[in-house]
Amino acid sequence: MVAALMVAESVYRDRGYDCVVTSAIDGVHSHGSRHYSGLAVDLRTRNIDAEDMKRMVFNDIKHALGADFDVVLEETHLHIEFDPKAPY
Prior knowledge:
Elements (H helix, E strand, L loop, with lengths): L1 H13 L6 E3 L16 E5 L6 H15 L3 E5 L3 E6 L6
Antiparallel strand pairs: 1-2, 2-4, 3-4
Helix pairs in contact: 1-2
């Protein structure tokens, strides 16, 4: 997740925004959430002023992280989780 956060921080910075982690292993999440094992983070999006810019940040991060990460643009945040598609 450290590598994913470094990618996200770079994308946010390149787009002119601060990257703020709003949840990692803390908070309340669904049963079985990858947050509890340290394999997911949520990032603030309310500081991104336009929906199209949120979409650009989302797309940039999703593209940079590749298939082993799920990146989901939620209504209130950006969710990133490590979810490898092939056994390691």
